[in-house]
Fold these 2 entries.
Entry 1:
Amino acid sequence: MSLVPEGVLLIRADNPGYMTLEGTNTWVLSDGTVIDPGPDDPIHLEAIARAGQIKRILVTHGHPDHVEGVDRLVKMTGAVVGEVPSYLREVKTPGHTADSVCFVSDSAVFTGDTILGRGSSVVAWPDGNVGDYLKSLETLMTFQGVPALPGHGPALPDCAQAARWLHGHRLERLEQVKAALAQGAKTPQEVVDMVYADVDPALKWAAEWSVRAQLDYLT
């Protein structure tokens, strides 16, 4: 059974990677609303344009893998950027980035990178903020039983459940950072080596982002 509600189409960009998982998820709604056009990839954008009459474009945050394609898609379709339809509520969810938002309908929460379909989101220091992220997750815990349609990875059955897990995971990481400092870690790199020892070396830079954000929060 698909977790994607009727009237919502997933078009995934061909930009897989460590940070993008299978690729950026572009969500196209039956009324012509596009959420996160993704990269400036003509093939991807043409697939979006073919999905129906595109009327408006919304973005969950300003990272390039979500917004690079906006200008080209506007030229292709004449769509308006930022016009939120009446049935879709914009909820500010800073933390991953300062400008992060989610879009909420009766049938789904479009979570961008605040909640991913797999794993945990990076708090993108210095723009991201751990305290804001924890509060945003508390907000998303209120959407019990509503599917989360993320910016990367598969759809999740329950936004509230995912938000609770991420909230607990983030608090656990903070305790691990405190322990690393108590054991003598002096620099973000030393904290990364102690707390994120099992992380793929290719992702150590992202772990350092999160550690710097965690240190800011703790101090």
Entry 2:
Amino acid sequence: MAKRDYYETLGVAKGAGADEIKKAYRRKAKELHPDRNADNPDAEAQFKEVNEAYDVLKDADKKAAYDRFGHAAFDGGMGGGGPRRGPAGGQGDFASAFSDVFEDLFGDFMGGQPGRGGGRTRATRGSDLRYNLRISLEDAFSGQQKTITVPTAVQCSSCDGKGTEGASEPASCPTCSGMGKVRAQQGFFTVERTCPTCAGAGQIIKNPCRSCGGSGRIDKERQLSVNIPAGVETGTRIRLSGEGEAGLRGGPTGDLYIFIEVEDHPLFQRDGADLWCRVPVAMTAAALGGEVEVPTIDGGRSRVKVPQGSQTGRQMRLRGKGMPALRGTGSGDMFIELAVETPVNLTSRQKELLREFEREAADNSPERDSFFRKVKGFWDGMTQ
């Protein structure tokens, strides 16, 4: 049976460049890998076909010979002039061909990065840190500069983060030759694992620093100044770049994330940029009308007119007296909600006056009269 054209096997045009061939191979290898095609009995044969084609076309000399002589360049029919080792004679290096796509298929599982060879970075970036900061509503209104104490890991000053004693440098790991990974052959698979000697660092420290034990960092509390912008809300996140944990062996420092929590206020309730304040008023002030003095979040005072006949729940707005906008300009509003207060602990004289008022106020309660008319209609309907 005649062999398929190698270009056709990979799904590329004749004369395709190295990058295009490599991309096509990776795509085909992923698609036809036997582990992903357990229900396809032909997958293994097709997978080997793809590896065979790529083993030839990825090599410039083999590709040139194939372009000129086709499959005859590898079946021994060239009289010794052409390349003799190749997939057609059973000598194809499937492990070499498959290594290009191995990290794409299993890179995440093995800890590698797809499409990248070589060893791991020896220096490790420090961890990001989180700090929860509680502030008052007044601080959120005006904005503040706070000093916080953060327990973290900082670069060891004794070894300048190298992890070695004195001025010595870390030595390259003899097991992995500084790559941080070791490879083992299993059939046509190349299995890559973290080096057991250096734990993936690529280096070993023969004379560790006495202060940090070779890690290149020590635990320490740091004091930092944090600028809290006006208008922050609970859940606001502030990022301080480079203020996190120091990296291992001179690696870059992580970041510090400050999460804001605004405390509840005894007078004001917040709704975005708006503030709400529930103000109790005397029954007489609500009936006759008058003024009430209310506080504002900036520490000031405002006098608000109470219209005659005001009921509990009536709202009035003070424009621009809310919280400043965190993003943008302007401020929210402050809403006053009235709570008409019933008097308690009445004297005999006060009770007498209220009874007299009740006799004279038969037509002064429209909401009550409307309610009882509806109740009467409801009961009448139930009777019928």
